């Protein structure tokens, strides 16, 4: 029985190390993205969740990401709904909720290479 438990633990550790991609959550609440600044690894996924009554938008200044979101119809995220995006390229990506820029509803995602994150 102990051998089985050890085998399973080793297997889980192996799977964890071979699947480094993580999922992060950003809340859209009180007319803000929380957190506003987030650093993730390349290959990680972000889930935005709208916890406000009003709808929010996620518009990246980066054209490629913006087109991806537009294709997936994430221009408008209604109350209680989520939008998910996987980041496959590194860089610093600013975005905003266009209808609420007056509330300074901006965010920045910094995507780093796996090795860069580990050496920090
Ligand atoms: Cu908004």
Short description:
This protein has 120 residues and is α/β, with parallel strands linked by helices.
Describe how the helices and strands are arranged:
Blueprint: H1 2-18, E1 23-29, E2 32-34, E3 37-41, E4 45-50, E5 59-60, H2 63-71, E6 82-86, E7 91-96, E8 106-112, H3 114-118
Parallel strand pairs: 1-4, 3-8
Antiparallel strand pairs: 1-2, 4-6, 5-7, 7-8
Bound molecules: copper (II) ion.
Residues 56, 97, 99-100, 105 line the site of copper (II) ion.
- What percent of residues are in strands? 25-35%
The class by helix and strand makeup works out as alpha/beta
Reported by name, the CATH topology is: Immunoglobulin-like
Mean pLDDT: 84
Discrete helix count? 3
Helical fraction: 25-40%
Describe the fold and architecture.
It is a single chain. The protein has 120 residues and is α/β, with parallel strands linked by helices. It is 26% helix and 34% strand. The protein has three helices and eight strands; from the N terminus they run αβββββαβββα. Strand 1 and strand 2 form a beta hairpin. The chain is elongated, with a radius of gyration of 17 Å. The site of copper (II) ion (CU) has 5 residues, from loops.
Q: Keyphrases for this structure?
A:
Immunoglobulin-like, alpha/beta, 120 residues, binds copper (II) ion, 8 strands, 3 helices, 4-stranded mixed β-sheet
């Amino acid at each position: 029985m102990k051998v089985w438990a050890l085998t399973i633990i080793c297997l889980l550790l192996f799977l964890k190390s071979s699947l480094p991609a993580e999922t992060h959550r950003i809340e859209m609440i009180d007319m803000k993205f929380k957190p506003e600044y987030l650093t993730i690894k390349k290959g990680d996924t972000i889930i935005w969740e709208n916890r406000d009554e009003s709808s929010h938008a996620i518009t990246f200044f980066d054209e490629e990401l913006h087109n991806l979101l537009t294709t997936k119809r994430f221009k408008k995220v209604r109350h209680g709904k989520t939008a998910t995006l996987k980041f496959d390229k590194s860089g610093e990506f600013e975005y905003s909720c266009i209808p609420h820029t007056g509330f300074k509803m901006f965010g920045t995602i910094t995507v780093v290479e796996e090795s860069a994150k580990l050496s920090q």
